[in-house]
Amino acid sequence: MAANNGSDTKETKPLRHGYTTGSCATAAAKAALTALILQEKQTESTIRLPIGQDVTFEIVRCEFTAERAEAEIIKDGGDDPDATHGARIISAVTWREESGFELDGGIGVGRVTKPGLPVPVGEAAINPVPRKMLREAVASVLNQFELEHRGVKVVVSVPDGEEIAKKTLNGRLGILGGISILGTRGIVVPFSTAAYKASVAQAIRVAVKCGCKHIVLSTGGRTEKYGIDMYPDLPEEAFVEMGDFIGFALQQCKNQGIAKVTLVGMMGKFSKVAQGVMMVHSKSAPVDFNFLAQVAREAGATEEQTEAVLGANTAALVGDWMLEWGYGGFFELLCGYCCEQGLKEVKGGIDIETVIISMKGSLLGHAARWDR
Fold it and tell me: 166, 352, 343: which is closest to 265 by C-alpha?
C-alpha cells in the first residue's frame, strides 16, 4: 500500500481515493532530500496535498551517497481505473553548485513537443501544480535543517512510463517518451469526470495551437477510427475522444474558435444527443424509445413498426430494424436532430456535422448544419 488514507474499511467499502503522480513524486523527493541531508534511509514521507490534507506515503526503496539520494514510491490509484496505478515513481535529488531549485524529468517522464499544454515546449511534462508541490516540499526540508542557501536539483523518473504512456492520450497531445506528472488536488477521485473533461479540454487546446479549425469528436475508439478514415488529411491533433461529454466538448470547441465540428458516434449515445441530452452516460440518461418511435414514424414506419420500436430494449436494435425495414432516412433524421441540438447547446456560431455508424463500423447516417 503506497499511502495510509484510512478509508479502506470493511464496513462500508467506499471507493478509495488514490494519489496523483505529482503527489508521489513530491513525497519521494522529500524523502530523498531528507536522506541526502541526514545520510539515513527513509521509510516513509508525509506531505501536505493541495486540498490541505496530510498524507504519509511508504518509501519502498531509498538509496543515498554523500552527493545524491533517490527514493521510490509505488503509485496507488485507489479504486480509479488509472493507467499509472502501480507505477514506480522515483525522485532523485542532488546538490547544485548555486542556490535555487531545478526540476527535470528522467526515464519514463515525457517531453512536451507541441504548444497548447500548461508546460512549455521542450520541458519535462511535469504540470504546474506538481512543480509547485515539489518546489515547496524541497524548500520546507531545507528550511527544517537550516539549509535555505543550498541549491537542489530533482529528477523525477517512471521506469515503465514509456510503456504506460501508450495507454494514454500523451502521444496525441505531443508528450513523447513517457507519461505526464499530473494532479491539481493531489488525490485521484475514483471514476472522476473532472479528470476526463480536463483531458478533453486539453486535447482541443492542443489542436487549436496546432492550427486546427476542424475537429472530429468521437465517443470512443471505433468511432474515432471511422473519423480518421473519413478525414485522412486532417492532422492527428484534430481527432479528440470526447467520451460521454458531448455538450462539454462542443462548448470547448466553440469557446476556442473551432469553425467546424464533426461528431461521430453510434445509435445508443446519439439517439440521446438527438433529443438534447448532452451528457450521455448510461446512468445519467436512459434511451427514450418514445422519441425513437417518433423519428421512425417521421421516416415512414408503419404503426405496427412504431409499436415495435416502443417495445425495443436497445437503441442498436431499433437501428437494426430500421435497416431491415428499409428506412435509411431514419438515420439522416437522427443525425440532423443531433446537429440542431448541438447548435442549440452552443448557441450557434459553429458548423456541426454528425455521423452515426454501426457496431461493425459501417455508415448508417450523415447530416450537417451550417451556422456561420
Answer: 352
